[in-house]
Amino acid sequence: MIYKCILFLFLSTSLLFSATTSTSQHLPIRPKTVSDSNDEATIREIVEMERQSREASLHRDAEFSEKTLADDYVAITPLGQVTTKQDTVAARKSGQLRYETINVTDMVVRIYGDTAVVTARADVKGHQLGEDFSGPYRYTRVWVRRTGHWQAVSYQATVTQ
Hints:
The chain is α+β, with helices and mostly antiparallel strands. The protein has one domain (about 1-160): Nuclear Transport Factor 2, Chain: A (Roll), CATH 3.10.450. The chain is built from 5 helices and 7 strands. It starts with a helix and ends with a strand.
């Protein structure tokens, strides 16, 4: 169980939406009221960041975490453990975490100026230190645009049934 919760340190840069069409289905509920074309372009950017994050997790790409996690990044695991950017990068580099699949559904992206909040479901199959952490989860990730680039600043995951 401890490894299942530690896994979310790594999921902080891993869960992604596999198709952008589901995101557009959620556009009516986003709170921002400015130009739809600006919102849609921003949502596409965030969905692309999520896609890249998924690929990086499946391929254990620590460089992606180094590049896209803010220095003040904080993740909360399902057991309430706090992890940092440094923890996430070190875990990726160690190779002790292996994902077979990451399937994300029910993604909603909400835009608040230079901040984007992503919520989604994820079915994950993988192992950490030989222990299976496969199962269904829900997560929230917060992205902030800083100097023209999106960075993840916060992540929280919960085991679901």
